[in-house]
């Protein structure tokens, strides 16, 4: 229990005991309390300043993530009175430099594409004439050596024309200013059957059967029919050329979540090496250079295919195992309007 007399005695001692200059013990207690209050105020102020700077840093990081997501026209807008401002200025300067470099690279790439487009377009006309003349020479009376070299020249001219046409189509597809989608409702099952019919003779020579499956059979997609057919032709041609040992090619279409159409071109032939899967859609990339020389490939077929898929707002990937090689395309049911 508290003793009132003891408390009164302690208070009396505080009031009566004095130090130098006449200061009472009670006055030193007040000074101590005051010092503690000032110290608490300083700590609270320091914590508030620290918290504020942490919030500023978080905002800078959020702005940086926003820019990194592809919003390269955005800059960090706020100004601070600390060394953090140097970081903000450096980030904005770095983004400006990056955007300028990207634009310069885009212009260089566009110039290259324009050059390839113009050259490939201009070279097709004389190549057509050369092929025609070689065709006439092939049909004329020639000795064995003449016929041999005329045939070689004729075949090489055909390869050059195929390369020029592929180059022209590839660069045209990449150019957003020269290319437009012609969208129309496309009956997927009918299209797949017609495309397969166009390769039946070549497939029969190699003992390859086509299987066409569409779920549902009345599936319709908004797409550019000419481009979709070219895309499928490229994939089927690759399967026939490079799918050694294949006995069947599957053309499969499935409706996915009422939003997408999944097209699959599959063959059970030779497996594509894993190291080639990531580069297989790059222009001029060939899985086996020697094999492409024999088959006459240009290395642009899959690059053209990917450009067509991209233009429709879709995706394409390749999966290959010892049992099955599949090119899987996902297209929106309603493709974006032509730009």
From TrEMBL:
Membrane topology category: Multi-pass membrane protein
Keywords on record: ATP-binding, Cell membrane, Kinase, Membrane, Nucleotide-binding, Phosphoprotein, Transferase, Transmembrane, Transmembrane helix, Two-component regulatory system
HAMP domain ranges (all copies): 51-103
UniProt xrefs under InterPro entries: HAMP_dom, HATPase_C_sf, HATPase_dom, His_kinase_dom, HisK_dim/P_dom, HisK_dim/P_sf, HssS/ArlS-like, Sig_transdc_His_kin-like_C
Location within or outside the cell: Cell membrane
A GO CC annotation given for this chain: plasma membrane
Catalytic activity: ATP + protein L-histidine = ADP + protein N-phospho-L-histidine
Protein name: histidine kinase
Organism: Lactobacillus gasseri 224-1
């Amino acid at each position: 229990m508290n003793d009132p007399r003891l408390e009164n005695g302690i208070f009396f001692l505080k009031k009566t005991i004095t130090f130098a200059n006449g200061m009472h013990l009670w006055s030193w207690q007040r000074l101590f309390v005051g010092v503690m209050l000032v110290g608490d105020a300083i700590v609270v102020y320091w914590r508030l300043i620290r918290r504020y700077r942490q919030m500023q840093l978080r905002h800078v990081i959020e702005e940086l993530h926003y820019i990194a997501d592809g919003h390269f026209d955005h800059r960090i807008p706020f100004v601070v009175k600390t060394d953090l401002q140097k970081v903000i200025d450096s980030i904005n300067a770095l983004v400006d430099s990056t955007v300028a470099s990207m634009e310069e690279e885009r212009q260089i790439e566009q110039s290259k594409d324009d050059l390839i487009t113009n050259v490939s377009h201009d070279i097709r006309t004389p190549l057509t004439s050369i092929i025609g003349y070689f065709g006439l020479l092939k049909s004329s009376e020639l000795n064995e050596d003449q016929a041999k070299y005329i045939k070689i020249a004729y075949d090489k001219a055909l390869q050059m024309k195929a390369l020029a046409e592929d180059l022209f189509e590839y660069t045209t597809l990449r150019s957003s200013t020269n290319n437009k989608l012609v969208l129309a409702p496309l009956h997927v099952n009918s299209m797949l059957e017609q495309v397969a019919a166009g390769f039946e003779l070549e497939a029969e020579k190699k003992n390859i059967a086509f299987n066409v499956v569409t779920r549902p059979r009345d599936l319709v997609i908004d797409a550019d029919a000419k481009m979709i057919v070219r895309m499928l032709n490229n994939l089927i041609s690759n399967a026939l050329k490079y799918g050694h040992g294949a006995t069947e090619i599957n053309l499969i279409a499935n409706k996915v979540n009422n939003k997408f159409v999944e097209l699959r071109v599959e063959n059970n032939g030779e497996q594509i090496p894993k190291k080639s899967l990531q580069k297989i859609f790059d222009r001029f990339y060939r899985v086996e250079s020697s094999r492409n020389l024999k088959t006459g490939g240009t290395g642009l077929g899959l690059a053209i295919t990917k450009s067509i898929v991209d233009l429709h707002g879709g995706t394409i990937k390749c999966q290959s195992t010892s049992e099955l090689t599949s090119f899987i395309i996902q297209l929106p049911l309603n493709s974006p309007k032509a730009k």
